[in-house]
Structures
1.
Amino acid sequence: MSLPEACVILSVIVLLLTSSKEAASFQSGSRSILRALSGENKALVDYAVDLNSTNFDSVLHDTPATHAIVEFFANWCPACRNYKPHYEKVARLFNGPDAVHPGIVLMTRVDCALKINNKLCDKFSVSHYPMLFWGPPSKFSSHGWEPEKEKSEILVIDDGRTAERLVSWINKHLGSSYGLDDEKFENEHLHSNISDPGQIARAVYDVEEATAIAFEIIIEHKMIKQHTRVSLIKFLQLFSGSSSFKEIICIRCRKGSAEVLVNFDDLCPPDMWSPDKQEVLSNGKGMLGNFQVCGKEVPRGYWMFCRGSKNDTRGFR
């Protein structure tokens, strides 16, 4: 298997986001999962996902995000109304088609003033408004929360009274450095008529997964040889800067590929083909082999659009 053959994986990557542009939008219950009140004014956009007893389990079960925040509030509560702008400032970072850091945290809310949500709010022992919970999305859909329970993967966010404090709390638990002023790297060629942010997020996940696996194949099959060094550089250039693939390759993968190119001589030095260096590479300890081109969370080991009919399999076979 040669290095150029690995580039065939790019065709899968191209298909993923191309097909997602034709995906139909979906609704969560009676309200859109992401409700934009104005496409022009960002201040009028609700980034947090509105949940109720009918869609709570399904949305949290199906999200590709690795973490979730659920805000329990009441629409009559003055403190909740004052807190909403703070919550939305943070949700802007993680939710929606223009999310700065997509796929990390799904930020949601539940209105406990609605009768339909009474049992749901009781299930989480909501004692005051607003009350914020943090945990793996799957745990929300399968468990409640009890204050007396010592060991629980669902945590109460005890210091999120402002947007700044909430981001700080998230950073502390993720070991991250997100900021309210973080901005997305805009792609001037990206079409704005893609209507379904949920479908986009799933396509992005599969693109990242395929990209990371392509690099794994190159490393694990020992395809980096002295005579294929130029091909590898061209492969990286295709990911990081090609105008033809700018709309398809995800931001994190593009940044990672660009970083490899900038540090290529350190990660893939000319003398790496010496016998002693080859032994290190064969043991999987080479610097390039340890570089996570799409971020430390990728590959995740599962697919969204490309999920196969059986566990641990990929579709499109």
2.
Amino acid sequence: MDLCHHEPTELSSGEAEELQRIKWHRKQLLEDIQKLKDEIADVFAQIDCFESAEESRMAQKEKELCIGRKKFNMEPAKGIRYFIEHKLLTPDIQDIARFLYKGEGLNKTAIGTYLGERDPVNLQVLQAFVDCHEFANLNLVQALRQFLWSFRLPGEAQKIDRMMEAFATRYCLCNPDVFQSTDTCYVLSFSIIMLNTSLHNPNVRDKPPFERFVSMNRGINNGSDLPEDQLRNLFDSIKSEPFSIPEDDGNDLTHTFFNPDREGWLLKLGGLICLLHWPPTGGRVKTWKRRWFILTDNCLYYFEFTTDKEPRGIIPLENLSVQKVDDPKKPFCLELYNPSCRGQKIKACKTDGDGRVVEGKHESYRISAASAEERDQWIEAIRASITRVPFYDLVSTRKKKIASQQ
């Protein structure tokens, strides 16, 4: 049987041309597809490069932010300059104020330090910072809770005065019908702060009743008294819940003692020790003990060893005075005492033999240095550190102002 072979059909000239066009188009499409692939690959490469650069930029920015925060927490003014120089912050007053108000990673003590300075820029930032707070429809205690949590009040009376004046002005602006004047708000704010201390400080044994709080604030509303129910609400709020004071991570004892005003070995006259064998009749004698002293933050701390993490005793220097004294047993002595309350125990605490913190029993503290020069240097440093409690003077001055306007 013969097999049939089909010869390929010859294309006409028109069909051959069409086939060539198809092949050419196919080639063009393949080339275009490859170009698209190359372009897509290039775009992805650029995206990867951009993301890498962005990640690097963000990492650099985060690094600069971290450096800036550390600088601010150590020296606030230098920290702000660093933020501005690295374009992390503009020099605009409102921008700086909002940055401090948000406070991300910032030490609240450092914020208070910056806001308390008298430089014109700092004063403007303080005003803008206070304006960041919204006090509308808050009672005074609620507003103070918000305000005092946003930074830590410094210790100097003039700084406290400026800050509380700005607070009182802002509160009255947000709540125009609550008080007759900003002076009323100012005085009552301090009364509340002092009430908070009196009610919740374990060292204050005489807790003020509501009647005393009312008496403290008589006549402060442009010569008239504030409604008792208003004062009762404020009193009860503080009594049930004390102010939350910012405690920064950097404010532990290690940070407190990192940069003291002065430190060194001194001899401290301690408590009475009973002698059973000498003299033969028995007796009691005070002993001198060598202690490592650190002066910082208006307090005098003393340790048994320089390596101790916790002090053996703490002597707050508020309302105390220091003077040279002669002692028959030791030369180059100085004495800490309360000039207005001679014979009363000084507010202090120490660790007893069982490790418990107990109240100090000294009416004065006598300390001996190694030389007259060292004693005089300690006296000078202590005098520079001693401050009186500023609140009472500030309130007294403002009450006199209110009275003079009647």
3.
Amino acid sequence: MSAEKEQEKKKKLPSPLQ
């Protein structure tokens, strides 16, 4: 479980909520 990798994906991918 890499939190750093998850954050990178969120930064690359657009926010689904917004």
4.
Amino acid sequence: MLLRFLSATGALCLSSCAALSLPPSPSSPTPDIDIDVVPQPPSSHILSHFRQIKVPCAECPFTDSCDSSSSSNSYLTLSFTTENTTLLANDDPIFPPTVPMQFHALRHWAAGQQAVLLAYALDARPLPPTPGALLGDIFLLKLKLFDLHGRPASDHLVSISLAKDTAGDLLISDIESVPFHGRGGGGHRRPRPSWLARLGESLEAVKSAAQSCWEDAPAPAPAPAPAAGNDRVSHGAVMDAHRTMAPNPNPHRPGGYRPPYWMGRGGNGNAGKMLQPVVLPALLGVIAGVVACLTGFIVGRTVIAVYYCFRGAGRRRAGERAVVPADGVADEKERLMAVVDDESR
């Protein structure tokens, strides 16, 4: 039942969407509504033989010394025109590329303008008119600008779209300036810090944060002085004779705030509480290691001594067994010699 209900609901939604998407019929009357016609801006992809663009300059271009007055808000004026199958920049041909790859331009800033000579790097690639089609008569050019010393003259990339008409002449369909930050782009990229430098910065940040937290920790409130003539001892003083807890600043209010542990003077007690879970296991581990080493050394020496003791005893017994037959042979020889001497007499 649930599946039938969902199917019917989906079919109803689809039919309503299809009905809303249908255009109104010509016979149906249209309401008389005043509609303000907004003029549409001209498309930027209109084919033309001339386009002009302003490209911002890089920091301190065309000079070894940096002058803030001349480098701030400076830009280059580039005028691109087409003549037959050639693209020109400020009346100097740049596509197809020529040697040397240079053209003239005007650099503007607040104080005036300056004529400069630019070198350029050109990346040209053909594009298909439609996705999946063969390469046609559409080209995409990417222009990088440099000064004569090879330094970037601008940190922007000039992108130009070209197309051919029926006669085979080039036309400009689009042009734009895009900032880029690739290798060599801008010439002012900072090198990435190494992992060791990043680790040092992280440790410094952790150290500064811990120090700030330590300095911002509130100091313990001093205990109030007992009133003159008050010989009674508070219940907290009787129960806590060793001062393991902070004194109650208001002994007359049993529900007042009491710190969970005694901070001590100057926060030393807090530091001891923090270091105790770290130092005590380390000391116990060192002591256990020393005891284990000594025990192993003593047991090893004992085993070796017992082994050599039993080995020496076995060798002595084996030597005694070997000497007994030799003594017997000597005694038998002496007895025979005595018999021979007696017979000879």
